[in-house]
Please model this.
Amino acid sequence: MAMDHLGDIFSLVLMSLALGMDAFSVSLGMGMQALRLKRVFIAGITVGFFHMLMPFIGIMLGRFISTQMEGFAVLGGGLLLFGLGVQMVLNSFNVEEKSLMRATGFGLILFSLSVSLDSFSVGLSLGMSGVKTFLALLLFGIASTVLTWTGLLVGRKARGLLGVYSELLGGSILCAFGLKIIFG
Model:
């Protein structure tokens, strides 16, 4: 029983890191701008908030759906996670430059929303599977905040070396979790 609980926590930690990889890779590019540490801090907190809000909405919607269509909900959640992972992997091969968004005002909101949209889908999947909501949201928020801060700070130094690989890794992890849900 305790091992199952530990396995669930470990799975959520890995999923949190996978979701935060998107924020990390985009933050690398944004970190190449001249940002003050105060702006880096605010950007990380904002991304973390959105990585908690979007899956919360997804979890609530997923729970509603799962009570209505219980048998198909687990399969749908697994397929959704797998599809999202495939999309992240394919996007990692997209060589076209992403436009740099500003880390202030509307640009920060747009940035936070864009990197947390995938966590809505994951939340939807998790809501269908009955995951512990508070723990999942807390881990998603912490991981994305820390990865955003890391990406912004590394971006100031590294000029985008890790961006593609982090999104590829994140997509691969989501694919694996999708297959785990589908095949049990």
About this structure: The domain at 2-183 is CATH 1.20.1250 (Growth Hormone; Chain: A;). The helical segments are 2-30, 37-68, 70-92, 105-129, 133-158, 163-183.
